[in-house]
From TrEMBL:
SUPFAM superfamilies noted in UniProt: S-adenosyl-L-methionine-dependent methyltransferases
Sorted UniProt keywords: Methyltransferase, S-adenosyl-L-methionine, Transferase
Superkingdom in the source lineage: Bacteria
InterPro entries given in the database record: SAM-dependent_MTases_sf
Gene Ontology biological process terms from the UniProt entry: methylation
Entry protein name: Methyltransferase domain-containing protein
CDD domains: AdoMet_MTases (cd02440)
Single GO MF annotation: methyltransferase activity
Tagged with keyword S-adenosyl-L-methionine: yes
Organism of provenance: Hymenobacter gelipurpurascens
One Pfam family per UniProt: Methyltransf_23
Amino acid sequence: MSSSALTTQDPLGHALLAYQRGQHQATLTVHSNVAEEEPLPAAYLFRSLWEMPELERTALNECRGRVLDLGAGAGCHALELQSRGFEVKAVDISPGAVQVMQERGVNEVACHDLLDPALTKDKYDTILMLMNGIGLAGTLEGLGGFLQHAHQLLAPGGQILATSSDISYLYEDEDGALVFDLNGPYYGEVEYTMEYEGEHGATFPWIFADPSLLQDCAEAAGYQVEFLEEDDQQQYLVRLSLKGQ
């Protein structure tokens, strides 16, 4: 990755590179349209297996065959799978993240967005989408589009292993009733901006899909749906398999 590729807005990549260069206090600020700004320490994206949430460890144990790790960040999942003998392609839209993964020893790394046609040249037995990875689809419409696109990425018998969350709790009033506009956008559609040392990235959409909505979308796109695990923060791990395989 050339240094010129890192001059564009890439606060995530610059924070990861800073951590990789020894600045272990490097921290992103995450802004959203639904909550207060939150710090995201770069260290979290370098976590080891036993620092990962249980949902992620379960997902890694469920991987099989050739793996496509989407939104791979600093490569913690790809490196763990490599250590187990898996063939993994790790993909991120951040040039800085891609450089960090290359430096950390991820064997196959590429800078792509979710729907890049270049990814369809190969077939994968597992598509891995962790850290609320369903969110990479951006919107409800984008989720349907990605699930259709993934047909071109999956080998026969392939699976998508993904995590997401139901964030309806953000819209509860003091009595516990849900308050949101039923005629507005789906409540799980969120807009984020990342900031690192004064550098703001472009605002991007992210979707948190509640389980029933995810099931409806996936079944409409031709998948069998199996919910594997849920934690106490309303996050869940789901396996999507193409029907009839």
